[in-house]
Design goal:
Layout lengths: L2 H23 L12 H14 L1 H33 L1 H14 L8 H7 L5 H24 L3 H9 L4 H38 L5 H10 L3 H28 L1 H13 L1
Helix pairs in contact: 2-10, 3-4, 3-6, 3-8, 3-9, 6-8, 7-8, 8-9, 8-10, 8-11, 9-10
Length: about 260
């Protein structure tokens, strides 16, 4: 990115922070307690880290997100691949996925609380549900979008099912699969916070509720900033991974064109 590009990327953020600080310092909104300045929020951020409160809460939420995200992604990818590749699997699982997918992940919370109880498995199960369906849906759609001519030509030339999947289908479906991963990355953090706010006494969500009960707006903003940062970092991570495997995608397209 050029220097001008970096400048235009940073300038709106700097302007927003200056506006935030100015509004808070001039008391343009009612009460500093309800609208702390940016510097006050930074001080609170440092204090929460120094006391170990933010790190402990963040660590618990991060572990839950990673476990649920990995399990949900793996299951969603496998089921989506089967649905996109095999018509029988699509007929078997497609109606079920179509019926359940529109249900918000948080809609499962009351049922899971009765089935699982208040335990570490509850937020992980919530993240699993929130991650499974986006990747399953996008993977199935990506695999089905691969041109039938490519697959038919590869089979005619003697390619095995695994070779077709590895060299033709997955490279061409990769962009849509990564779109599903990016969608569910943000969903995982939204779900985990909501679950912790309602049912779990630890984690970022629980810290948010504690801050609300103490009328600590600065602490609430700190938690929201951490969540925003994690959603952004997860999105950038999968975007970087997608760019890193684009050479594989281009190679797959090249090989597909040879069949």
């Amino acid at each position: 990115m050029s220097r001008s590009g970096v400048l235009w990327a940073i300038l709106p953020l700097v302007a927003f922070l200056l506006l935030w600080e100015t509004v808070a310092r001039l008391n343009l909104l009612p009460g500093r307690i309800f609208f702390p300045s940016f510097l006050d929020t930074v001080v609170e951020f440092y204090q929460l880290i120094a006391d170990g409160i933010l790190i402990a809460s963040f660590w618990r939420s991060l572990v839950r997100v990673l476990v649920g995200f990995f399990a949900g992604s793996l299951a969603g990818f496998v089921v989506g691949l089967l649905m996109g590749w095999k018509d029988l699997a699509n007929k078997a699982f497609g109606p079920i996925v179509s019926l359940i997918y529109p249900i918000p992940a948080l809609g499962w919370l009351p049922l899971l609380m009765l089935w699982i109880g208040i335990s570490e498995a509850l937020p992980i199960a919530m993240v699993f549900i929130g991650c499974f369906f986006p990747l399953c849906y996008n993977t199935a759609g990506g695999v089905r979008s691969v041109g039938e001519n490519f697959i038919r030509a590869a089979r005619t030339l003697g390619a095995s099912e695994f070779e077709i999947l590895h060299s033709v289908v997955l490279p061409l479906a990769a962009p849509q699969i990564f779109t599903g991963l990016r969608l569910q990355a943000g969903m995982a953090w939204r779900v985990i916070v909501a679950a912790e706010m309602v049912a779990i006494p630890t984690g970022i969500g629980a810290l948010l509720m504690r801050a609300e009960s103490l009328v600590r707006v600065d602490m609430i903003i700190v938690c929201l900033m951490v969540l925003s940062l994690m959603c952004f970092l997860f999105d950038r991570l999968f975007l970087s991974m997608e760019r890193a495997v684009m050479h594989w995608t281009r190679h797959g397209r090249y090989r597909a064109s040879q069949y």
